[in-house]
Amino acid sequence: MTQLSETLRQKLRARTARTGVVGLGYVGLPLAVELAKAGFHATGIDLDARKVDAINEGRSYIPDVRTADVQSLHAAGRLDATTDFAVVRDLDTVNICVPTPLRKTKDPDMSYIVSAVEGIAKYLHPGMLIVLESTTYPGTTDEVVQPMLEAGGLKAGVDFYLAFSPERVDPGNPTFQTHNVPKVVGGFTPTCSDLAKELYGSAIETRFVRDLEQVPAWAMDGGGAEVPRTIQDATFVESRLHSLRTRNAAAYKGIYSLLLGNEARDWMEDKALDKVQYATLETDIHHIFPRKWCIANEIDEERRESIVNKTAITARTNRTIGGSAPSKYLAAIESKAQIPSTQVDGLLESHLIPASELRADDFSSFFVARRERLCELIENAMGKRVQRDVDEGHSTEGSEQFEIEVEDRDALLEI
Ligand SMILES: NC(=O)c1ccc[n+]([C@@H]2O[C@H](COP(=O)([O-])OP(=O)(O)OC[C@H]3O[C@@H](n4cnc5c(N)ncnc54)[C@H](O)[C@@H]3O)[C@@H](O)[C@H]2O)c1
């Protein structure tokens, strides 16, 4: 790999590459959405202004693509569209997904590919990856696309990277969609193939196959084997904490384990919630600001049910909490358990709960402070920065897409 290709590879791995898709039809729009979901910034280019407007208004016009996805990705600033090819100047990759209808003579009409490549060629710059996805006859990439792109003086495989990856999507298929149809990639050079694989590997579930090879080997080798790509590539966004509300989610279990590993202790018995005490003290996940209190105080469901407002609480402590305001239940805990408030504050801190905000019954300040502490906990575990996307006004993860946790017995009793 040269410096140029290595730079692009790093950008693809870090999802900082700016991706583009030309042709926002049945093939192009789902691909742009998958790229944006994977964490890239994706720009669609289409000559049809109605499609461009729809994306920029947060609407889908393709049955396989949910409007909620287009809306949230657009609002998060990760998906947009334009009719103007000048945007190619700012892009690192472009996938060409324009139509290739058959003529009467049964050969494909190449005019759409030619016109799309003309548009790209004007703004082609060193280090870009161009992938042709349109269905076409063998040889199109080398005979049509390559010479048009090289006309400006840049060389394929040296100054820019070129690959063909025919689209195999089957619109309406409930099982196989853009995210899990395996891709076949043919690069102009081995480096071109590697970069195209890198692009799709980040967005399309070729990952499953890779995980099957890498994860068991790594787990069974006691940490000696190379860290699997799926772990190297993993990212976490702050707004995910808003949508994590049920113990069915793997990320929820992960954060919960980190909290217990952080030596979380019971608030009345002052005992570490280790393997033995967890069961003995009948520990379960409960609300910190009780559900009943939240409803009475009109706390929105998104924050009320988020993992930020939950922790491991033993049965006895939870009975004392009931549905009361934190200031009240903390006083009850202190008097029943005969523990001074400074010690209780320490026990709360072991759950990364900001004690003063809790004592003040200040849900909003509590939520912001604990969310930040959970982000730091996750950052320590992952060795990577958690992207703070909530204060920017838009969360990438909309909690409305996620199920509500089946309410536990005690929580129901609270109401
Ligand atoms: N739809 C499928 O089921 C399917 C499956 C496999 C492969 N393919 C292939 O994928 C390619 C795209 O198919 P599709 O179904 O998405 O087509 P489509 O007609 O749904 O969408 C193509 C889009 O490209 C846009 N376009 C045309 N010329 C353009 C240009 N010069 N610049 C920018 N945009 C332009 C059109 O406005 C349209 O929005 C075709 O080659 C097709 O054969 C399609």
Architecture overview:
This protein is an alpha/beta fold. The protein is built from 20 helices and nine strands. The strands form two sheets. A seven-stranded mixed β-sheet has the order 3-2-1-4-5-6-7, sandwiched between helices. A two-stranded antiparallel ribbon has the order 8-9. Helix 6 (140-150) links the parallel strand 5 and strand 6 (161-164). Helix 1 (3-14) runs parallel beside helix 7. It is elongated, with a radius of gyration of 26 Å. The N and C termini lie far apart (62 Å). Nicotinamide-adenine-dinucleotide (NAD) binds at residues 22-28, 45-48, 51, 97-100, 112, 115-116, 119, 134-135, 167-169, 171. The site of nicotinamide-adenine-dinucleotide has 26 residues, from helix 5.
Short characterization:
This protein is 45% helix and 9% strand. With 415 residues, it is of the alpha/beta class.
* CATH fold name of the largest domain: Rossmann fold
Strand content: 5-15%
Determine the structural class based on helices, strands and strand pairing. Answer: alpha/beta
What is the averaged pLDDT score? 87
Helix content: 40-55%
SSE arrangement, N to C: HEHEHHEEHEHEEHHHHHHEHHEHHHHHH
Task: Identify the CATH class of the largest domain.
Answer: Alpha Beta
Give the tally of β-strands: 9
Ligand kinds? nicotinamide-adenine-dinucleotide
- Over all CA atoms, what is the radius of gyration? 26 Å
Low-confidence stretches: 396-415
CATH architecture of the largest domain: 3-Layer(aba) Sandwich
Query: What is the count of helical runs?
Result: 20
CATH H level, superfamily name of the largest domain? NAD(P)-binding Rossmann-like Domain
Globally, the shape reads elongated
